[in-house]
Amino acid sequence: MPIQLGDVVPDFTQDSTEGPLHFYDWVGDSWVVLFSHPKDFTPVCTTELGAVAKLKPEFDKRGVKVIGLSVDPTDSHAGWAKDIEETQGAKLNFPLIADHDRKVANLYGMIHPNASDTMTVRSVFVIDPAKKLRLTLTYPAATGRNFDELLRTIDSLQLTDRFKVSTPVNWKHGEDVIILPSVSNEQAKELFPSGWVEHKPYLRTTKQPNA
Ligand code: BEZ
Q1: What is the pLDDT of residue 1?
Q2: Residue 36: enclosing H or E segment and its boundaries?
């Protein structure tokens, strides 16, 4: 049974570039992005890990820890980290799980046998501080992910957890948001004192709270 949105994600211990890692202890009370890579020393993965290292301050700002995974051992990861720094101009600044026995990959359903029975697909799991799965993305091996999109979705998750709003298509931080249809106009006057535009009774947009 695949892990589904809202499920508490499974705990594990596994080797990593930062030593043996007990996942729940490492997570603490942070948000987490766990993302898998098909294999060490592969080109798309090399660019992705460099990009995430450069974006680390953006994840930090949002209280999100990032952790990668590839189904190779730690000595292989150590050699690959040197290549990442050399070719991408960014040092690996987060742990990379060495999932040599595919324990975590199998636990999280990162291997899709009809795509490859040995390599993981490019899975992304966004996990909240209650250790619940809040968002997943699955890309094939040949297609690199867009980590700006991942930051955008985290902005939406964190905003919609705090306020009675949802975010429209292609929304970015700072843009107008949608008032939840369950909020009456009476309640909306209190919650959104700057007002709103009523396009339809079920579609009311307002300035992003706390922008
Ligand atoms: C890559 O990272 O470039 C890659 C990895 C596995 C299969 C295909 C591409």
Answers
A1: 81
A2: strand 31-37
**What separation in Å is there between the alpha carbon of 25 and the centre of ligand 1?**
31
Beta strands in 59-211 (DSSP E): 64-70, 96-98, 122-127, 133-139, 165-166, 177-179, 197-200, 203-206
pTM above 0.85? yes
For residue 210, name the pLDDT band (cuts at 50, 70, 90). Answer: confident
Give tens-digit pLDDT for 116-127: 988 999 999 999
Is the minimum distance from the CB of 100 to ligand 1 under 6 angstroms? no
Closest residue by CA, ligand 1 atom 2: 44
**Residue 192, C-beta contacts closer than 8 angstroms, at least 6 positions apart:** 179, 206, 207, 209
Active-site residue numbers?
45
Pocket flag, ligand 1, residue 181 (CB < 6 Å) = no
DSSP lists the bridge partners of residue 65 as 32
Mean pLDDT, the chain, whole residue set: 97
Query: What distance in angstroms lies between residue 64's CA and the mean position of ligand 1's atoms?
Result: 26
Q: Is the CB of 166 under 6 A from ligand 1?
A: no
